[in-house]
Amino acid sequence: MKKAALLVCLLGGMAFASTKSFTVTLFEPAMVGNTQLKAGDYKFEVQNDKLVIMQHGQEATETNVKVETAAHKFGSTAVSYATANGTTKVEEVEVGGTHMRLVLN
What we know:
The protein has 105 residues and is of the alpha+beta class. The protein is built from 1 helix and 9 strands. The radius of gyration is 16 Å and the shape is globular.
């Protein structure tokens, strides 16, 4: 019985470990995927190759993401934007306190 409980805890822990979440502040309105997000605080959840963005407990959008590992740890979270044809788009997010860089597709 103890082995079964331990196995359930380990499997639950691995499932939790595969989802990474953190808070990101957008300082200006920007496109993520096909969704225009307003400036504000969002919860970003990385789920394998998907990025789910939540605000006020509700899903705002979901998009594909490539997770890269940088050689150095980022001191703070930084959002990189690109502007084309008058539209601002989130290109990547460096997650503060980690080596993780998210490249949005």
